[in-house]
Amino acid sequence: MKKEKIILFDLDGTLIDSTEAILESFHYAFDSLNIDRPDNKYILAEIGYPLDIMFKSLGIKDNIILKIVAKYKEKYRLISRDKTFLLPKAEESLIEASRIARLGVVTTKTTKYSIELLEHMNIKDYFEVFIGREDVIHPKPHPEPILKALSQLDSDKTDCWMIGDTCMDINSAKEANINSIGVTSGYTSKEGLSKCATIITKNTLEAVNFIAQS
């Protein structure tokens, strides 16, 4: 049976929890350049944005952005597999989603590291397309990442969904003119998501079940 639906997933806070790896990598990057670390709450508030934007928001000057991002990646590459975990119901949601739709990943993480993580967690084969930071000029909340994923899936956008844990995901979907669901399993509260999302669920499994019934 041909699957007419498309479901695109964000990663951090949606399918995976890499908080520990992210924080440790940020600490390493700041320490390596002898720059005072910001409080963790400020780092966590930026998760979802590309690394260069995160560091800039945390006070890093433009002339050393590339250097500090490289330090972050140097550490993250070493620890990400051991310190990243599937969120509750994530794999179950992919099993259910794969029965009704073609699946893709749209993230601001580096594609290479994302694919390595998905392979490590044995969920890579659920996805037909992976769009990461280096695959686009304009990351979420711009529609480009979603539109690129849909183009690779040869979709006409008639029954397409984006599932994510931040308003960046939801607003990207709106700009791409597809449906979206916010999940509270990640870095944005229900109150925060209510500012951008009309459909909010606790996790991706609830989101997939909603899509299946739509």
Write the layout of secondary structure elements.
Layout: E1 5-9, E2 16-17, H1 19-32, H2 40-46, H3 51-57, H4 65-79, E3 85-86, H5 90-100, E4 101-106, H6 111-120, E5 129-131, H7 144-152, E6 160-164, H8 167-176, E7 179-183, H9 190-193, E8 200-201, H10 204-213
Parallel strand pairs: 1-4, 1-6, 4-5, 6-7, 7-8
Antiparallel strand pairs: 2-3
Helix pairs in contact: 1-4, 3-4, 5-10
Report on the structure:
The chain is α/β, with parallel strands linked by helices. It has two domains: 5-17 and 85-213, 3-Layer(aba) Sandwich (Rossmann fold); 19-79, DNA polymerase, domain 1 (Orthogonal Bundle), CATH 1.10.150. The protein has helices at 19-32, 40-46, 51-57, 65-79, 90-100, 111-120, 144-152, 167-176, 190-193, 204-213, and strands spanning 5-9, 16-17, 85-86, 101-106, 129-131, 160-164, 179-183, 200-201. The chain is globular.
Shape: globular
Helix content: 40-55%
Radius of gyration: 17 Å
| Pattern of helices and strands | EEHHHHEHEHEHEHEHEH
Secondary-structure class: alpha/beta
* Biggest sheet strand line-up: 5-4-1-6-7-8
Quaternary state reads single chain
Largest sheet: 6 strands, parallel
Uncertain stretches of 5 or more adjacent residues: none
How far from one another are the termini? Answer: 18 Å
The strand count comes to 8
Number of structurally distinct domains: 2
> What is the averaged pLDDT score?
95
CATH fold annotation of the largest domain: Rossmann fold
What CATH architecture label of the largest domain applies? 3-Layer(aba) Sandwich
What's the helix count?
Answer: 10
CATH class of the largest domain: Alpha Beta
Strand content: 5-15%
CATH superfamily of the largest domain, called what?
HAD superfamily/HAD-like
